[in-house]
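Incident log, support desk, overnight shift.

02:14 A customer reports that sequence design results differ from what the structure should imply. Their input is reproduced verbatim below. On-call engineer (initials T.W.) acknowledged and began investigating.
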């Protein structure tokens, strides 16, 4: 197989009918049937009360480690194989616990190419954080009008699909190979909720796929809560939109209350600041495929983490060779806790044109992370989302079509801007004219959505 740069890429890849990676020895009743791909949230060990000093210290250590792992000078994500390597820090152990929590022992997969890809997201991003260092207006590919997307990523996370990022780039941006399961573990109670939509993308063409005709568009909304663990199908579109919060709410959450830092040392003040951010630990579970160029956390940085007992990378290597676990106690999940874990309750909401949800609002969100010029239009039941936040922290939404076929058959993704670097296909229109026409098309489609919204008693309003 040839990459976009003309280089030869050796790729041994098997996909089942659902677009998931399988092993060459895959059996029809194997991997996919043994794993629960549904969107759900459970409470991990980190959700227990932190009024004791030891629990508070563990959480502060994890927030410190998260800030190190999020450094813009390090790789974007890290690899923890499911077998053959012992966890050498708390974050690696957490990634391995997530893998074992979701992948039953009866699953049929190739252990040599299976494991956990993990990373950290922090908002507001610290000065040395990945977003602070790389999200700049003068970065390569920046375009006029990108502020809307920048603002979304500044307070939350833009809409995207999890995938083998380097493989996608090598194949010209069209190949999308997804993890089996995507997960979010919240380390603080702050910030925007995670929104998961059952929208997919074609593995080989990159074309957007609406839910099948026999499946209604659905969403799962999860508000941050320390220790909550969200998991969902790795093929699904998701984000953390900051505008689902009240105006100024996130800034107020991040503000250190008067007296909190009074009389504290510089180190203690920094610790307090870490507690006032939206911090998430992300783990993608990969089976039968290891994403390109994703490697374990650098050994030379292990001694910088609070959760490593190694004095140096050399000592860490010796411990790994000896085959001894550095951290024995479970951090998120015990290996035998899959059936005992506490499920986080979910508020359900069904929306149709005949049964409009009160205080709904249409959102226009930019698609991010793939150089796309497309926006996602979604009508969200804000009153129920707010009720879900206050009551249980999760809400399941279904946009259901009426018997007559009216209602919501898809959540449209509409092109708004276009590239100014090329001519149109016919060759008789310059790029500026093509952009004007694309904008007009977007405005017409958005207006039609607004009319549907009004007919269904949906109202555009501030939260």
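02:41 Re-run completed on a clean worker. Output:
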């Amino acid at each position: 197989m040839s990459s976009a740069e003309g280089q030869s890429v050796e790729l041994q890849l098997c996909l089942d009918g659902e677009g998931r990676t399988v092993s060459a020895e895959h059996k029809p009743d194997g991997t996919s049937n043994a794993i629960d791909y549904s969107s759900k949230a459970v409470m991990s060990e980190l959700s227990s009360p932190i009024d004791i000093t030891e629990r508070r210290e563990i959480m502060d250590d994890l927030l410190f480690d998260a800030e190190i792992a999020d450094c813009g000078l390090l790789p974007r994500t890290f690899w923890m194989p499911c077998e053959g390597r012992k966890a050498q820090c708390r974050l690696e152990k957490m990634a391995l616990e997530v893998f074992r929590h979701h992948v039953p022992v009866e699953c049929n997969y190739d252990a040599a190419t299976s494991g956990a890809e993990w990373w950290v997201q922090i908002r507001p991003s610290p000065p040395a954080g990945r977003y602070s260092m790389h999200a700049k207006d003068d970065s390569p590919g920046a375009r006029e009008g990108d502020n809307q997307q920048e603002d979304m990523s500044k307070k939350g996370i833009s809409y995207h699909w999890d995938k083998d990022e380097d493989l996608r780039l090598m194949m010209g941006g069209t190949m999308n190979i997804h993890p089996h399961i995507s997960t979010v573990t919240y380390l603080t109670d702050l910030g925007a909720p995670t929104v998961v939509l059952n929208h997919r993308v074609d593995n080989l063409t990159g074309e957007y796929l609406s839910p099948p005709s026999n499946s209604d568009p659905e969403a799962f909304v999860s508000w941050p809560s320390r220790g909550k663990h969200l998991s969902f199908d790795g093929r699904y579109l998701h984000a953390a939109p900051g505008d689902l919060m009240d105006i100024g709410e996130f800034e107020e959450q991040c503000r250190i209350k008067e007296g909190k830092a009074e009389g504290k040392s510089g180190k203690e003040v920094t610790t307090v600041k870490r507690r006032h951010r939206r911090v998430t630990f992300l783990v993608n579970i990969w089976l039968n495929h290891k994403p390109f160029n994703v490697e374990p956390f650098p050994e030379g940085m292990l001694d910088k983490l609070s959760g490593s007992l190694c004095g140096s990378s050399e000592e860490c290597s010796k411990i790994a060779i000896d085959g001894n676990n550095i951290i024995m106690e479970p951090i998120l999940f015990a290996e035998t806790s899959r059936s005992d874990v506490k499920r986080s309750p979910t508020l359900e909401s069904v929306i149709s044109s005949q049964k409009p949800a009160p205080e709904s609002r249409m959102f226009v969100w930019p698609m991010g992370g793939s150089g796309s010029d497309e926006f996602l239009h979604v009508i969200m039941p804000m009153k129920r989302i707010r009720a879900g936040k206050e009551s249980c922290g999760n809400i399941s939404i279904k946009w259901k079509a009426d018997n007559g076929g009216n209602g919501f058959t898809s959540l449209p993704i509409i092109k708004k801007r276009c590239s100014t670097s090329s001519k149109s296909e016919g060759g008789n229109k310059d790029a500026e004219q093509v952009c004007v026409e694309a904008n007009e098309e977007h405005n017409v489609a958005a207006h039609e959505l607004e009319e549907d919204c009004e007919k269904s008693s949906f109202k555009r309003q501030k939260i």
